[in-house]
Amino acid sequence: xxxxxxxSEIANGRLAMMAIIGMFVQDGLTGSAWGDxxxxxxxxxxxFENEMGVQAPLGFFDPIGYTKxxxxxxxxxxxxxxxxxxxxxxxxxxxxxxxxxxxxxxGYCSISQNLKFADIPNGLAAIxxxxxxxxxxxxxxxxxxxxxxxxxxxxPGAKGDFGFKVLTAKDQAGLTKKLNSELANGRLAMMAIMGMFFQDGLTGSAWGDxxxxxVSPLR
Length: 219
Fold this sequence. Notes:
There is one protein chain. This protein is 49% helix and 2% strand. The protein has four helices and two strands; from the N terminus they run ααββαα. The chain has a two-stranded antiparallel ribbon with strand order 1-2.
């Protein structure tokens, strides 16, 4: 019981140290002990707090401070990268999941090498199985996608608009909702695909069979 009490004291002390520093910071910036951020009118984040992607429960979330300079050019460049990487991550995540659920494509990946799509494993193991000519085609297509559209500052492409209107909405409220959903799903997919890569690399299984991770220090 004494040990439990001492451990609780240490844990609560650590929490209190973080809490009081946070209170000092918000009091110093807002002039309010409870941190009324409406009073912090000089915040550089106000330039972006109404941008697309600012969603509950975190609101405008920038813990590293990328936007503290208040530069709209830098913000737009990073938003362009976020949209692009989010879309790639969503496709990559589905690429991991779909073959496990519905199987592989029929036919051959390489007729000359007698390599069927069914012979290519799912996940990271596929990297060494796909022929170099196949990777060349993939990279060439990626390059074409990158340079075939105008993505200069201020262009529709810079905002992620490449004319693909299948999933769009006619009214502004519906369009805003779908664009916010795309950002949220892209962010989730970026985390998901990194988790899949990590567990695949450790276990050798695209679905992360941790029974295969025999060198785990947690064993």
